[in-house]
Batch of 2 targets.
Target 1
Amino acid sequence: MKLTSAMVRQTLDQFEAQPIPDNNPVVPELNKLFGDHTFFLDDNGLNIVEPAAADSAKAPEWQVVKVASWQDAGKTSLTPHEPEPTDVVIALGPGSPETAA
């Protein structure tokens, strides 16, 4: 799910990660593999953020979900895997997701 610019900022206030800009050349491949999301890299790998309540994109709580792990200690290669919900829950204000600016 794509997040708005405000939602990305709120996420980064609560989760130490680096967002991958939409204009990064890797994003089309990530979208093919994982769907249309805002992607975040952290020390554990590649993550997305999804509503904690499966039935609502306007949920106040969102969960960080890891979709790929670093393959090497140098963090130069990722290995995709089944989505793994993490213990990280982000409090986001209500608002419909849209493409980040």
Target 2
Amino acid sequence: MLITFSGKSIAKNTIFNLLGYGIPILFAIVFIPLLIEGLGKERFGVLILIWTLIGYSSFIDLGLGRSLTKVVAEKIGLNQTDDIPVLFWSSLFLMFVISLLVSIILILFLPSTLNHYLNISFALKPETYKIFYAVLLSFPIITTTSALRGVLEAHQKFYIVNIIRAILGVATFGIPLIVLNFINSLFWIVLSLIFIRVIIWFTYLIFNLKLNRNLRSKIQFSFQSTKSLLKFGLWISLANIIGPLVLYSDKFLIGTMISAVAITYYATPFEMITKLLVISSALVTVLFPIFSASFISNPELSKKIFVRAVKYIFIIVYPLVLVIIIFANEIMSLWLGQEFAIHSYRILQYLAIGILLNSLSLIPNIFFQGTGKPHIPALLNIVQLPFYMVMMWLMINKWGIIGAAITYMLMAMVDATAMYVMSFKIFSISIDKKYKFIMIIPLIFLFLSFQFSAISNKFIFIGFVLFFFSTISWKYLLSKEERILFSSRISNIIKI
């Protein structure tokens, strides 16, 4: 089974991903206030811990889910699909065993952990114990789901993956509300969520069996076939461990060095602006199997897709970041009130620049992973982490939460620069110098937008920048073929 890659298919699959990630976010905005009201703040806090635990359980697969996606995509690209069944079942079995062992270990330590580290009321403790036991026992199902989903992604079946992802996302917030109408029990809510996960697991399995008939007839395990998967996956796991340290260390330091209130002023705009990463994440999820499948047989095609992805992410995300930065005060005021905005709008501005840079750095990061070099971004993160922690501590100590936001922005700049320098050096990827120059000028405009306070000046400035940005993007960032393609798309939309 050979799969061809085109701009149209990449765009279509990216839209599928955006819908798969975005629809649950919309439902969360509506359902969460209702859940807080129905459960109460303390029990809803426990539910958040359960959602977090379920989310992080995917990290215990040692990166095998992502590894399987890469190798299956390579086998498809080389037309060696007969090798897929043994890889599929071997990975699934190994992930099941690993997650089961982790579950058993965590269950043994659960009573002492909850007693010492979870500050909840005495009345809620018995129910919480049962909930955590149930979730830990479900780890093998939750973890192996990533392998089943990854194989579908390797086959470019993103419409299936995202229909299931959207259903699961909506159910994560909707099922608790349904259960609350019948019984006010957090334990039954969590059991219902686990039951949905089991249904999702079997749904993914059925689609995999339909996609590749050999999976039914060649059920076998080979440890030898998983060695390369483990080697690749361990670097992915290392990156998955370091990533959350970077993501949450700033909030921990703010809480330790300043106050819990300061965390709120910092974390609220942070949680808001990080939602922009959904755009680049939707694209790189599509690109990962493409890079894996095409780099071996056609490395020049992979490099071409790399360059296009960078341009498109910049063209799409930059205007959104510009609007957020220049109207940060107004956005925070409308959302949470003027008093809150006074403390947090500057935070939002600095973090927005950092998120733009993070969005751009996801492209080389996924390129390294897709081409079999996951150790490069992992090692870069290891080198950056101590500098990040020290700088974050110094900046918070000097300038408070503003210093934390500036540090996040600066380290995002360092990370993006390092990622692109390494990708250019290792893979000889060439980007026209005019692209670099054109992309730097709009970044300068982002910092200039900090200076405007009058609303009329803001509208004049943003109008000028967006006109300038759209003009240079159309004339210099897009190729002649891309301009023709976009012109035809726009004409079709206008006709409709």
